Amino acid sequence: VIWWSKMMMPLLKKPEGNNAIRAIMSARPEINFGGGWGNHQAPEKLRACFEEVVRNDFHAASRYSKTKGNERFLEVLVDRLEDGVYGRKGIGLENIISGNGSTELTAGLFKILLQKGDSVLFSDPCYLNYPTQATMEGQEVKVQRIPILDEGLNFLPRTGSEAFLADFEQIIESTAPRAVVIATPDNPTSQVWPSEVVEKMCQITLKHRAWMVLDLSYRSIHFGERPEYYGLNFRNYENLITIHSFSKDFSLLGLRAAYVIAREDVIEQLEHLEGARNLSPNTLVQMALLKFFEGSTPEEIEGYFEENRQKYLKTSQVMTGALRVALPNPTLLVPTGGFYVILKIAGYDFRNDVEFAAALAEREKTAVVPGSAFGKVLDGSLRLSYAPLVEQPEMIEEGVVRLARTLKNGVGFHE
Ligand SMILES: Cc1ncc(COP(=O)(O)O)c(C=O)c1O
Q: What DSSP element (H or E) covers 180?
């Protein structure tokens, strides 16, 4: 066994977070607060487009598309969604590449942007795939983290933005990262980064010649006003790269569709890489999406987003409300977008959040993700996802009751 494992590349250097999640999900939970997937439906019109493409055009849909994606699809996507809904101007075919999910494109970006010995800056906490991806395949990259939450789970880019930005600039100066990557709305904090802060970060990174990467996978699910930076691209800040996914916004999770928008030279490099390792994004999905966007106005698309936003907002309120009823003065982070509530459990009778999550899965068949999977700052916290239960909010209360019971009965669990 040792011999064979030595025959492999050091592929995944830090899989602890992923492993914890896998173990908890494999307990076959009845109530799932663990999943980072929304349970709303894709637009009915889009389902019908898939049906039509399969019925009438299956042969064409089963062929390779260009590595960058089908050009007509990309043009219509830019016209109806990027420009039509978000007012993003000046995105040509040379500035966009389609891919099989943003996970794959993000890993590709790390590969082309980061060289041996480079630093990369992520928030603490951050989406747990970033550090794994940045250091994968033997990439010798140093991961730096900037805390975005304090002890009381306040979101520092909002509650202490000046100090946060000063900290940010100081880290940029001292570690000279090649790239900064944030998600907004964020996973796991479910916070929408404030517009002024993101713009300042674009300016600071530009000044220090670092790439600024915004992962906008949860873009449509913001509960307050739409952030102004949704309209920005590399024409505003040449170092700005944005990552987009159909997984959350259109609930196409397993169908794998995503894209990246950036300067031409970034897209060219990514295309070169994708050509070698992926060859072609899924043609059927692109054809169905092309048909869908051709037959939809920006208003209709925005209407679909708005409907889901309201659903997620209500569901998030059910979850925070239930936690406040079930627990005395809980320390939690109220979402301003996205899928998640962060709950602090430090102070209860458990050794750590991983042990608690495992106990909850085993005893109460309720899945949550230990906060430490996302970074040190969330040691002793949990990420509770309300997205899998967006169509069954009544289950949330039951899950919270089980969670509270496990917290209260804490003594002896780890013996
Ligand atoms: C911040 C963030 N980016 C990307 C993804 C993955 O998206 P995709 O399905 O496009 O690979 C997730 C999934 O949870 C996420 O939370």
A: strand 179-183
Note the pLDDT tens digit of each residue in 34-83. Answer: 999 999 999 999 999 999 999 999 999 999 999 999 999 999 999 999 99
DSSP-assigned beta bridge partners for residue 107: none
Lookup: tokens for 359: 């106990």
Nearest CA to ligand 1 atom 3: 217
Does any ligand 1 atom lie closer than 6 A to the CB of residue 191? Answer: no
User: From CA 57, how far away is CA 297, in angstroms rounded?
Assistant: 24
Sheet bearing 96-99, strands edge to edge = 96-99, 258-261, 240-245, 211-215, 179-183, 119-124, 142-147
Is the CB of residue 188 below 6 angstroms from any atom belonging to ligand 1? no
CA 143, 133, 260: angle at the middle one, nearest 5? 110
- Nearest residue (by CA) to ligand 1, atom 16, is 187
Residue 245 Cβ contacting ligand 1 at under 6 Å: yes
Mean pLDDT taken over the chain: 94
d(CA 158, CA 266): 31
Closest alpha carbon to 412 in 367, 351, 366 = 351
User: Is residue 215 in contact with ligand 1, taking CB distance under 6 Å?
Assistant: yes
The pair of three-digit structure tokens given for residue 258, joined into one six-digit string: 């995503």
What separation in Å is there between the alpha carbon of 386 and the centre of ligand 1? 16
Pocket lining: 187 vs ligand 1, CB cutoff 6 Å: yes
Tell me how far the alpha carbon of residue 196 lies from the centroid of ligand 1, in angstroms: 24
Q: Which residues contact 121 (CB under 8 A, 6 or more apart)?
A: 144, 145, 146, 171, 172, 175, 177, 179, 180, 181, 210
